[in-house]
Specification:
11 helices, eight-stranded mixed β-sheet, 302 residues, alpha/beta, single chain
Length: 302
Protein backbone atom coordinates (compact mmCIF):
# COMPACT_ATOMS: atom_id res chain seq x y z
CA UNK A 1 0.00 0.00 0.00
CA UNK A 2 1.44 3.37 -1.00
CA UNK A 3 1.93 6.31 1.33
CA UNK A 4 -0.98 8.07 -0.36
CA UNK A 5 -3.49 5.23 -0.29
CA UNK A 6 -6.61 6.25 1.68
CA UNK A 7 -7.08 4.32 4.93
CA UNK A 8 -10.51 3.33 6.20
CA UNK A 9 -11.13 4.69 9.70
CA UNK A 10 -14.13 3.62 11.78
CA UNK A 11 -16.19 5.70 14.14
CA UNK A 12 -15.48 5.30 17.83
CA UNK A 13 -17.38 2.13 18.74
CA UNK A 14 -18.15 0.24 21.95
CA UNK A 15 -17.38 -3.36 22.86
CA UNK A 16 -18.78 -5.19 25.89
CA UNK A 17 -15.76 -7.16 27.15
CA UNK A 18 -16.80 -8.33 30.61
CA UNK A 19 -19.15 -7.74 33.51
CA UNK A 20 -19.74 -3.99 33.75
CA UNK A 21 -16.86 -3.23 31.34
CA UNK A 22 -17.33 -1.68 27.91
CA UNK A 23 -14.38 -0.41 25.92
CA UNK A 24 -14.44 2.46 23.46
CA UNK A 25 -12.41 1.47 20.38
CA UNK A 26 -11.62 2.55 16.84
CA UNK A 27 -10.09 0.78 13.84
CA UNK A 28 -7.82 1.79 10.96
CA UNK A 29 -7.49 -0.34 7.82
CA UNK A 30 -9.28 -3.39 6.50
CA UNK A 31 -10.56 -6.27 8.67
CA UNK A 32 -8.82 -8.89 6.52
CA UNK A 33 -5.37 -7.39 7.21
CA UNK A 34 -3.09 -8.52 10.05
CA UNK A 35 -4.78 -7.54 13.32
CA UNK A 36 -2.75 -5.24 15.57
CA UNK A 37 -4.12 -4.14 18.94
CA UNK A 38 -2.58 -1.00 20.48
CA UNK A 39 -2.75 -0.62 24.27
CA UNK A 40 -2.17 2.79 25.87
CA UNK A 41 -0.67 3.73 29.24
CA UNK A 42 -1.71 5.23 32.56
CA UNK A 43 -4.79 7.43 32.28
CA UNK A 44 -4.20 7.82 28.55
CA UNK A 45 -6.92 7.80 25.86
CA UNK A 46 -6.85 5.96 22.55
CA UNK A 47 -6.07 9.25 20.81
CA UNK A 48 -2.53 9.15 22.22
CA UNK A 49 -1.94 6.52 19.54
CA UNK A 50 -1.67 9.33 17.02
CA UNK A 51 -3.76 9.16 13.84
CA UNK A 52 -0.56 9.48 11.80
CA UNK A 53 1.03 6.43 13.43
CA UNK A 54 -2.16 4.36 13.12
CA UNK A 55 -2.42 5.32 9.44
CA UNK A 56 1.20 4.37 8.79
CA UNK A 57 0.62 0.99 10.46
CA UNK A 58 -2.52 0.38 8.37
CA UNK A 59 -0.57 1.16 5.20
CA UNK A 60 1.95 -1.48 6.26
CA UNK A 61 -0.77 -4.14 6.17
CA UNK A 62 -2.29 -4.02 9.65
CA UNK A 63 -5.90 -3.85 10.79
CA UNK A 64 -5.20 -1.45 13.64
CA UNK A 65 -7.37 -1.41 16.75
CA UNK A 66 -6.83 1.32 19.35
CA UNK A 67 -8.98 1.61 22.46
CA UNK A 68 -9.49 3.29 25.81
CA UNK A 69 -8.57 1.06 28.75
CA UNK A 70 -11.14 0.68 31.51
CA UNK A 71 -11.16 3.85 33.63
CA UNK A 72 -9.78 5.98 30.76
CA UNK A 73 -11.25 8.02 27.95
CA UNK A 74 -14.76 6.90 27.05
CA UNK A 75 -14.59 3.37 28.40
CA UNK A 76 -16.36 2.18 31.55
CA UNK A 77 -15.55 3.73 34.91
CA UNK A 78 -14.88 1.23 37.65
CA UNK A 79 -15.52 1.45 41.40
CA UNK A 80 -13.17 1.63 44.35
CA UNK A 81 -11.75 4.74 46.01
CA UNK A 82 -7.97 5.08 46.16
CA UNK A 83 -6.56 7.34 48.88
CA UNK A 84 -3.12 8.90 49.13
CA UNK A 85 -2.41 6.46 51.98
CA UNK A 86 -3.24 3.57 49.63
CA UNK A 87 -0.80 4.89 47.03
CA UNK A 88 1.96 5.40 49.59
CA UNK A 89 1.53 1.82 50.86
CA UNK A 90 1.68 0.52 47.30
CA UNK A 91 4.75 2.66 46.48
CA UNK A 92 6.42 1.22 49.57
CA UNK A 93 5.70 -2.35 48.46
CA UNK A 94 3.37 -3.07 51.38
CA UNK A 95 0.35 -5.36 50.93
CA UNK A 96 -2.33 -3.32 49.17
CA UNK A 97 -5.78 -4.30 47.92
CA UNK A 98 -6.14 -3.17 44.31
CA UNK A 99 -9.59 -2.47 42.79
CA UNK A 100 -8.42 -4.57 39.83
CA UNK A 101 -5.19 -5.97 38.40
CA UNK A 102 -3.20 -5.79 35.19
CA UNK A 103 -4.47 -9.34 34.63
CA UNK A 104 -8.01 -7.97 34.62
CA UNK A 105 -6.98 -5.34 32.09
CA UNK A 106 -5.34 -8.02 29.92
CA UNK A 107 -8.66 -9.86 30.16
CA UNK A 108 -10.33 -6.78 28.71
CA UNK A 109 -8.08 -7.14 25.64
CA UNK A 110 -9.17 -10.78 25.33
CA UNK A 111 -12.78 -9.61 25.47
CA UNK A 112 -12.10 -7.06 22.75
CA UNK A 113 -10.53 -9.74 20.53
CA UNK A 114 -13.59 -11.92 21.10
CA UNK A 115 -15.90 -9.03 20.23
CA UNK A 116 -13.98 -8.48 16.97
CA UNK A 117 -13.99 -12.19 16.14
CA UNK A 118 -10.20 -12.45 16.33
CA UNK A 119 -8.56 -15.62 17.61
CA UNK A 120 -5.23 -13.81 18.01
CA UNK A 121 -3.49 -10.56 17.15
CA UNK A 122 -0.20 -8.74 17.15
CA UNK A 123 -0.12 -6.48 20.20
CA UNK A 124 1.81 -3.32 21.10
CA UNK A 125 1.66 -1.46 24.38
CA UNK A 126 3.08 1.77 25.77
CA UNK A 127 4.13 2.10 29.44
CA UNK A 128 1.26 0.53 31.43
CA UNK A 129 0.05 -0.75 28.07
CA UNK A 130 3.37 -2.58 27.70
CA UNK A 131 2.75 -4.20 31.09
CA UNK A 132 -0.74 -5.20 29.93
CA UNK A 133 0.45 -6.80 26.67
CA UNK A 134 3.21 -8.63 28.55
CA UNK A 135 0.58 -9.92 30.97
CA UNK A 136 -1.65 -10.88 28.05
CA UNK A 137 1.20 -12.88 26.50
CA UNK A 138 2.00 -14.82 29.68
CA UNK A 139 -1.63 -15.45 30.69
CA UNK A 140 -3.18 -15.92 27.22
CA UNK A 141 -0.26 -16.90 24.94
CA UNK A 142 -2.48 -18.36 22.22
CA UNK A 143 -4.02 -14.92 21.64
CA UNK A 144 -0.71 -13.14 20.89
CA UNK A 145 1.09 -13.41 17.52
CA UNK A 146 3.87 -10.93 18.30
CA UNK A 147 4.57 -8.51 21.13
CA UNK A 148 5.91 -4.95 21.10
CA UNK A 149 6.65 -3.41 24.50
CA UNK A 150 7.36 0.33 24.41
CA UNK A 151 8.86 2.34 27.32
CA UNK A 152 7.69 -0.29 29.80
CA UNK A 153 9.11 -2.77 32.29
CA UNK A 154 8.75 -6.30 33.69
CA UNK A 155 7.25 -5.40 37.07
CA UNK A 156 10.49 -6.01 38.97
CA UNK A 157 10.93 -3.14 41.40
CA UNK A 158 14.68 -2.82 40.89
CA UNK A 159 14.28 -1.78 37.24
CA UNK A 160 12.15 0.75 35.38
CA UNK A 161 11.85 3.15 38.30
CA UNK A 162 10.49 6.71 38.13
CA UNK A 163 12.62 9.83 38.53
CA UNK A 164 12.10 11.12 42.11
CA UNK A 165 10.94 14.51 40.80
CA UNK A 166 7.82 12.83 39.39
CA UNK A 167 6.56 11.26 42.61
CA UNK A 168 4.73 14.34 43.99
CA UNK A 169 2.87 14.73 40.70
CA UNK A 170 1.99 11.04 40.54
CA UNK A 171 0.41 10.95 44.00
CA UNK A 172 -1.01 14.48 43.96
CA UNK A 173 -4.70 15.28 43.68
CA UNK A 174 -6.24 15.46 40.23
CA UNK A 175 -6.74 18.84 38.60
CA UNK A 176 -10.30 20.17 38.60
CA UNK A 177 -11.62 21.63 35.34
CA UNK A 178 -10.23 21.87 31.85
CA UNK A 179 -7.80 24.77 32.36
CA UNK A 180 -6.36 23.22 35.52
CA UNK A 181 -5.95 19.91 33.69
CA UNK A 182 -4.14 21.62 30.80
CA UNK A 183 -1.74 23.41 33.17
CA UNK A 184 -1.01 20.23 35.13
CA UNK A 185 -0.48 18.30 31.89
CA UNK A 186 1.95 20.92 30.61
CA UNK A 187 4.03 20.64 33.78
CA UNK A 188 4.12 16.85 33.54
CA UNK A 189 5.11 16.73 29.87
CA UNK A 190 7.89 19.23 30.42
CA UNK A 191 9.33 16.62 32.79
CA UNK A 192 8.69 13.40 30.89
CA UNK A 193 8.47 14.38 27.20
CA UNK A 194 11.23 13.71 24.67
CA UNK A 195 14.00 16.32 24.97
CA UNK A 196 15.23 15.40 21.51
CA UNK A 197 11.76 15.87 19.98
CA UNK A 198 10.08 18.61 22.03
CA UNK A 199 6.49 19.70 21.53
CA UNK A 200 5.80 23.41 21.29
CA UNK A 201 3.72 24.93 24.12
CA UNK A 202 0.83 25.25 21.66
CA UNK A 203 1.04 21.56 20.65
CA UNK A 204 1.27 20.52 24.29
CA UNK A 205 -1.77 22.59 25.19
CA UNK A 206 -3.80 21.25 22.25
CA UNK A 207 -3.02 17.64 23.16
CA UNK A 208 -4.08 18.26 26.74
CA UNK A 209 -7.30 19.98 25.62
CA UNK A 210 -8.13 17.13 23.24
CA UNK A 211 -7.45 14.59 25.99
CA UNK A 212 -9.75 16.41 28.40
CA UNK A 213 -12.51 16.63 25.78
CA UNK A 214 -12.20 12.91 25.01
CA UNK A 215 -12.61 12.08 28.69
CA UNK A 216 -10.46 11.97 31.82
CA UNK A 217 -10.96 10.40 35.24
CA UNK A 218 -8.69 11.27 38.16
CA UNK A 219 -10.15 8.41 40.20
CA UNK A 220 -9.72 6.00 37.32
CA UNK A 221 -6.08 6.96 36.89
CA UNK A 222 -5.47 6.27 40.59
CA UNK A 223 -7.09 2.84 40.29
CA UNK A 224 -4.86 2.07 37.29
CA UNK A 225 -1.84 3.28 39.26
CA UNK A 226 -2.56 0.80 42.07
CA UNK A 227 -2.78 -1.98 39.47
CA UNK A 228 0.70 -0.96 38.28
CA UNK A 229 2.17 -0.71 41.78
CA UNK A 230 0.85 -4.14 42.82
CA UNK A 231 1.92 -6.01 39.67
CA UNK A 232 4.14 -9.08 40.00
CA UNK A 233 7.55 -9.56 38.42
CA UNK A 234 6.75 -11.12 35.04
CA UNK A 235 10.39 -11.78 34.14
CA UNK A 236 10.44 -15.57 34.68
CA UNK A 237 7.15 -16.06 32.81
CA UNK A 238 8.28 -13.82 29.96
CA UNK A 239 11.40 -15.95 29.63
CA UNK A 240 9.20 -18.98 28.98
CA UNK A 241 7.51 -17.39 25.97
CA UNK A 242 8.36 -18.27 22.38
CA UNK A 243 7.15 -15.43 20.17
CA UNK A 244 8.58 -12.55 18.12
CA UNK A 245 9.11 -9.54 20.36
CA UNK A 246 10.30 -5.95 20.05
CA UNK A 247 11.28 -3.73 22.97
CA UNK A 248 11.51 0.04 22.42
CA UNK A 249 12.75 2.49 25.04
CA UNK A 250 13.87 6.09 25.08
CA UNK A 251 17.21 6.75 26.71
CA UNK A 252 15.81 10.01 28.13
CA UNK A 253 12.76 8.39 29.77
CA UNK A 254 12.16 9.73 33.30
CA UNK A 255 8.84 7.97 33.89
CA UNK A 256 10.15 4.43 33.29
CA UNK A 257 13.93 4.20 33.50
CA UNK A 258 15.57 2.50 30.47
CA UNK A 259 16.60 -0.35 32.78
CA UNK A 260 12.98 -1.50 32.48
CA UNK A 261 13.29 -1.86 28.72
CA UNK A 262 16.63 -3.62 28.97
CA UNK A 263 15.21 -6.06 31.54
CA UNK A 264 12.21 -6.74 29.30
CA UNK A 265 14.46 -7.47 26.33
CA UNK A 266 16.63 -9.81 28.42
CA UNK A 267 13.55 -11.70 29.59
CA UNK A 268 12.04 -12.10 26.10
CA UNK A 269 14.27 -14.60 24.29
CA UNK A 270 15.34 -13.46 20.83
CA UNK A 271 13.70 -10.05 21.15
CA UNK A 272 14.93 -6.95 19.34
CA UNK A 273 15.90 -4.06 21.62
CA UNK A 274 15.61 -0.58 20.13
CA UNK A 275 17.03 2.18 22.36
CA UNK A 276 16.35 5.70 21.09
CA UNK A 277 18.49 8.75 21.89
CA UNK A 278 16.50 11.84 22.84
CA UNK A 279 13.23 9.92 23.35
CA UNK A 280 11.43 10.37 26.65
CA UNK A 281 8.05 9.00 27.70
CA UNK A 282 6.05 9.78 24.57
CA UNK A 283 5.81 8.86 20.89
CA UNK A 284 7.23 11.79 18.87
CA UNK A 285 5.89 12.23 15.35
CA UNK A 286 9.43 12.11 13.96
CA UNK A 287 9.72 8.51 15.16
CA UNK A 288 6.41 7.23 13.77
CA UNK A 289 7.84 5.83 10.53
CA UNK A 290 10.72 3.96 12.20
CA UNK A 291 8.37 2.63 14.89
CA UNK A 292 5.83 1.43 12.29
CA UNK A 293 8.62 -0.28 10.35
CA UNK A 294 9.92 -2.01 13.49
CA UNK A 295 6.45 -3.29 14.46
CA UNK A 296 5.96 -4.61 10.91
CA UNK A 297 9.38 -6.24 11.01
CA UNK A 298 8.49 -7.96 14.29
CA UNK A 299 5.11 -9.14 13.04
CA UNK A 300 6.71 -10.60 9.92
CA UNK A 301 8.78 -12.88 12.17
CA UNK A 302 5.57 -14.55 13.40
Amino acid sequence: MSARTPVTVSEQLRAPVGPQVELCYQTFGEPDADPLVLVMGLGAPLTWWDDDLCTRLARRGFYVVRFDNRDAGRSSRMSGRVTRATLLRAFAGLPTRAPYTLGDMAGDVVGLLDHLGLESAHVAGVSMGGMIVQTLAVEHPARVRSLTSIMSTTGRRTVGWQHPALLPMLIGSGAQGKEAYIKQSARLWRLIGSPGYPLSPEENRQRAADTYDHGVSAGGTLRQMVAILTQPDRGPRLAALDLPALVVHGLADKMVHPSGGRATARALRGSELLLVDGMGHDLPTALHESLAAAIRRTADRA
